[in-house]
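In the current project phase, work has continued on tokenised descriptions of protein folds. One protein thus recorded appears below exactly as we store it.

——
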Amino acid sequence: MRRAQRDEQFRDFYFREMPRLRRIALLMVGGDGDRAEDLAHDALLHAYRRWGRIRNEDPGPYVRTALINLCRNYHRRRGLEKRHLAEVRSNPDLASPDETRRAYDALRVAHALQVLSPVRRATIVLRFYDDMTEAEVARTLDRPLNTVKSDVRRALSTLREALDDTREEASDASR
């Protein structure tokens, strides 16, 4: 079968199955639309890589199984992160105080970034993690400079609130 024909078959399958996979993932990840979209795309990518072997059968069950496994892995990772964070909080001897503080702060920031929209998250990551100027961020994201400045200001405000909330949760948990 020619590649163009194979890709056309997959394209049809993609557009037919994507809404269904997105709904399944949305329910599996507790309503996080962005995460659901990512997981659905990952499952379809998994199917595309094996399209030559699965296309003659009904590929729907294959891709749904892949999606469920990806969702399970996502929850497993989140559970491990939460347990590790709780363990570090309750047992400061696990690491040096500096290592513990850095790990805790990194997890807090990663968690806080999730409350931002994807565009604002990208803006903050490029601006502060990748150390770009606001003009460079604007060019990279193809957004007006003043919009990027506004996004940075609003995102930082949201992050401050989210980080204050996690600090309060941490002090409540340590009591």
Observations:
- The chain has two domains: 3-77, 96-173.
